[in-house]
Amino acid sequence: MIMVGGGLAIAAAAAVWFIQTSGAPASGKATQAAMTAGIDVKEQAAIEAIVHDYILKNPEIIPEAIEILQNRQKTAAIDEIRSDIEAPFAGTAFAGNPNGDVIVVEYSDFACPYCKQTTADIGRVLKEDKKVKVVFRELPILSEASNDAALMALAAAKQGKYFAFHETMFATGRPTPSTIENAAKEVGIDLAAARKFMATPEAQKELQNNIAIARKLQFTGTPAFVVGNRTEVGAIGYDGLKEMIAAARSSK
Fold first, then answer.
1. 195-216 tens-digit pLDDT
2. CATH class of residue range 82-250
3. Are the beta carbons of 219 and 233 closer than 8 angstroms?
4. Lesser CB count within 10 Å: N end or C end of the chain?
């Protein structure tokens, strides 16, 4: 009589079947797990047959299982770097409640039209939800001008004028030497000090770190968001942001 009551046994059998059908040599770990659970070779073979048939009849469980695994891996990756991504550059590259109960981290590029579109959604969230903190991180991936604008934004943060520059730069238009300078002048940035800072290792390191984290979190473009244990890429809109914020609050 076969007792299929142990999750360990089924998992062990499923692992063996998947490895065998994928053409890879079985490691023996699943078989050892089954033996540890008191399942002999015949019982394991029977369980493997059950799992095999079940997966063939319900193939949708494979992408579902992969999605669950990817989400767990993503959560672990976020937790590992959470303190780094949620701490605003120079302590000023954020908007909203400095002690917000939910932190929205946005990675953006000043040359990205979808990032520009998102500024209105972020503004609405900040206006309606006084408990949210939005941390902005520069991810200049589209052009050299993107990189120049990102460096100016970091310089603005050093001068305590990050959010003003962020909004003005997106409102001014695509980044060019003239639009970047005009936006900086409009918000009162000391250009000499800004240009000096833009050439520092600190500024370069910040952008390099942002790019490295974006790769780790598998961002494929901008804007990209981290809220709680979730990430999203693209212009998810006001409703998408609210959904992520609500999910982060409910998970606390």
1. 999 999 999 999 999 999 999 9
2. alpha beta
3. yes
4. N
